[in-house]
Amino acid sequence: MQRPPLFAAWRQTLHAGYSLNALRGDLAAGLTVGIIAIPLAMALAIAIGVAPQYGLYTVLVAAPLIALTGGSRFNVSGPTAAFVVILLPITQQYGLAGLLLCSMLAGLILIALGLARCGRLIEFVPYPVTLGFTAGIGVVIATLQLKDLLGLTLSSQPLHYVEQLQVLLSALPSAHMGDALVGAISLAVLLIWPRWVPKVPGHLAALAVGTLAGLTLEYLGIPLATLGERFSYSLDGVTHAGIPPFLPSFAWPWQLPAADGQPLRLSFELIRQLLAPAFAIAMLGAIESLLCAVVADGMTGSKHDPNAELIGQGLGNLIAPLFGGITATAAIARSAANVRAGAFSPLAAIIHAGVVLVAILLLAPLFSYLPMAALAALLLMVAWNMSEPAHVLHTLRIAPRSDVLVLLTCLILTVLFDMVLAVGVGLLLACALFIKRMSELTDTEAVNKDQHHALKDLPEQVLMYAIRGPLFFAAAEKALSTLRRFSPEVKVVIVDISAVPLLDLTALAALDNVLRDYRKQQMGLIFLGSSPGVRRKLRRAHIKREDGLLAYVNNHQQARAKALRWLSAASTQD
After folding, report:
1. Checking phi first, is residue 136 left (phi over 0); if not, alpha (psi -120 to 50) or beta?
2. pLDDT tens for residues 53-80?
3. Do 445 and 483 meet the contact criterion of CB atoms below 8 Å apart?
4. Contact, 470 vs 491, CB < 8 A?
5. How far is residue 516 from each of residues 96, 165, 509, 542, 546, measured CA to CA in Å?
């Protein structure tokens, strides 16, 4: 009896044996990754158009829930940069309430995929598709950060990339010196710090230096935007700057205000509108989390359960929005840092959520001093790393032209339109190119009977062909048309199908037509060397012995005997 795909990571941990050293490793990893996650979670929440605390709430709720129920011992979940291009348009159109509801729908889809044991299907997404939309997402994220990095004042917030770029270019004269200086300093630290002190995360140093630079500039009378100026919260009727220093409360998404400030109206039409982006979120979340698990397996020698991981991700995205959490999935950067810091079990991811809890309760007032330009610089570096420009250029140089076409198509469509269209078109294009390649592997050629001792003295009325490769809709007609090219004197055709691994309905229909033509001309057809699976499909399609004009044989001696018997019978009839 199969175990349910749930709590697989914890079962693996207990099977491996938990020790005091493992606990120390989990504690160290949880503290390290928790410190890394705090600024990233806030920056990513801001990038998708919501207040920074919602990114922290995501880590607080989704990360431990996914760690408890998922299938990877080392995955660390939370907000990720890959979701920005999908979530930002949802926030702009439906507000926070619509975003949370869409995340819940995505969670249900992920749970359904896990229960249906579709975890392995994600492996069939071609690498050029993944690389293309990931690089495109990086380009879009980097473009969106220019506003805060330079302190631009935008005239509008368009949804599409080309319009966004036009608005940004037209707003360049409004750049603020303070924001630009802090952004440049933060970027410089992000680039240089890892070379000096690799053990301390560079983005923490960048935020610290950027914050000190911002405070210095404000002391000198040079203004710049900070998190406390941009965001605020109300408590007992009093407005406070920054993020609230208390835990989120339970609330149904449809009780929260939509983009127009009014409560979201839950309806079938709203669900229908959110279903497409929810499916895109679920697919991207599945790809990201399972790729992350594969990377972690490669670093540790472990093996994750993909179906359990999908269910865990689904539960996290279903429950977290009820407490203000936005869409979450596993992040490769945080999971890799988790492994390098000594993690042994999912407890490290739970501890990392505890670090975020402490930060919310004790450090929230200090976050108000974070410059928006420093957070933008952090996301700019994240976008650069996830787009992997050097790897993309290398791939473009060495990859086959068809894969280059798929990669560039996904990249361009992701940037100019959206990731849903890019992945859909990319998959269709990759499938079409794969079908074309497979069809080129299938061919039919005439075989010289002298090559086989048992057949070399057969008369001219016997022809032999060999079909090699899969017989499916893209190759069947081309491969089988050769069987109709012969002179009227031919009475028997031997077809070697031992190298045919599979055939589909199109091939079966084409073979049936060939057999009908042979029967009209009283010709015999001998299939040589068919595999049990192929022969079973032929018989199920009623392509079987009838009127003594069709035979299945296993070797050349049997083919020779059957051909001579048919020739003898044909000459007797004549």
Report:
1. alpha
2. 999 999 999 999 999 999 999 999 999 9
3. no
4. no
5. 65, 63, 11, 12, 11
Over residues 364-401, the pLDDT tens digits come to 999 999 999 999 999 999 889 888 899 899 999 998 88
Q: 45 is written with which tokens? A: 């929440």
CATH 3.30.750.24 positions along the chain are 443-573
Summarize the confidence of residues 407-413 as an average pLDDT. Answer: 91
The neighbour count for residue 44, using CB atoms within 10 Å, is 31
> How many Å apart are CA 552 and CA 514, to the nearest integer?
16
What does each C-alpha distance from 298 to 21, 60, 77, 295, 308 come to in angstroms?
A: 22, 27, 18, 5, 18
Neighbours of 28 (CB within 10 A): 15
Q: What is the pTM of this model?
A: 0.81
Q: Which CATH number fits domain 443-573: 3.30.70.890, 2.40.50.100, 3.30.70.1400, 3.30.750.24?
A: 3.30.750.24
Half-sphere exposure of 132 (CA within 13 A, CB side): 32
| Residue 175 in tokens | 């750049």
Looking at residue 470, what DSSP letter applies? -
User: Checking DSSP bridges between strand 443-446 and strand 329-330, what pairing results, if any?
Assistant: unpaired
Half-sphere exposure of 183 (CA within 13 A, CB side): 24
How far is C-alpha 168 from the geometric centre of its chain's CA atoms? 30
Q: So what's the pLDDT on residue 178? A: 93
Q: For 31, what's the count of Cα atoms within 13 Å in the CB-facing half-sphere?
A: 7
Residues ≥6 apart with Cβ < 8 Å to 387: 134, 135, 136, 137, 138, 139, 142
Residue 1 confidence (pLDDT): 45
What are the tens digits of pLDDT across the range 241-250?
Answer: 889 999 999 9
d(CA 443, CA 274): 47
| Residues 294 and 44: beta-carbon distance below 8 Å | no
Total Cβ atoms within 10 A of residue 338: 29
| Separation CA 478–CA 55 (nearest Å) | 56
What does the block give as tokens for 112? 């359904």
Alpha-carbon separation of residue 237 from 42, 142, 233, 234, 240 (angstroms): 24, 37, 10, 6, 10
Question: Which stretches within 145-267 are classed as H helix?
Answer: 146-150, 161-170, 177-196, 202-219, 227-230
Contact 556, 529 (CB under 8 A): no
Asked if 222 contacts 342 with a C-beta cutoff of 8 angstroms, the reply is no
Nearest to 404 by CA among 135, 86, 123: 135
Q: How many residues does the chain have?
A: 574
